[in-house]
Amino acid sequence: MSSRLDRLGNLEERALQAHYRVDALAEECAVTPRHLNRYVHAKHGMPAHVWLKNLQFQPAKPSLTRGKLVKQVAAEVGSSNSGNFSRAFKRLNGISPSLFG
Questions:
Q1: What is the pLDDT of residue 25?
Q2: How far apart are CA 46 and CA 74, in angstroms?
Q3: How many domains, the chain?
Q4: FRET label pair with 7: which of 28, 42, 57, 101, CA 20 to 30 Å apart?
Q5: Residue 18 DSSP code
């Protein structure tokens, strides 16, 4: 699938600028959220919101492995609170962040 998104370049960096929100990333890329979702699903095999949450939480894994507190890691990845972070992390990874490290 050839897309305007292919020509934009670093979608991961744009995701960070959009605070990992589908609507903000779509606006940043000048496409509709539906187009972004179809593109991400074709490229990564998952919906855009799941891909963005995975990107957002990537830095959490090494921090948890190094023994940082869940509350600290949640703040580092921009989660509003540690409870929300823990639920989302477990949903994505199948294990709670306190058991991950």
A1: 96
A2: 23
A3: 2
A4: 57
A5: T
pLDDT (tens digit, 9 = 90+) per residue, 42-73? 999 999 999 999 999 999 999 999 999 999 99
Q: Would you say residue 100 lies in a domain?
A: no
pTM: 0.86
pLDDT digits (tens, 9 = 90+) for 71-84: 999 999 998 899 99
Q: 61 to each of 27, 41, 94, how far by Cα in Å?
A: 29, 24, 13
- The maximal CA–CA distance of the chain, rounded, in angstroms, is 43
Give the separation between CA 25 and CA 20, rounded to whole angstroms: 7
Beta-carbon contacts of residue 97 (< 8 Å; ≥ 6 apart): 60, 64, 70, 73, 85, 86, 89, 90
Structure tokens that stand for 14 in this block: 């744009």
Q: For residues 45 and 30, state if they share a domain.
A: yes
Q: Could you tell me the residue range of the domain that residue 21 belongs to? A: 4-55
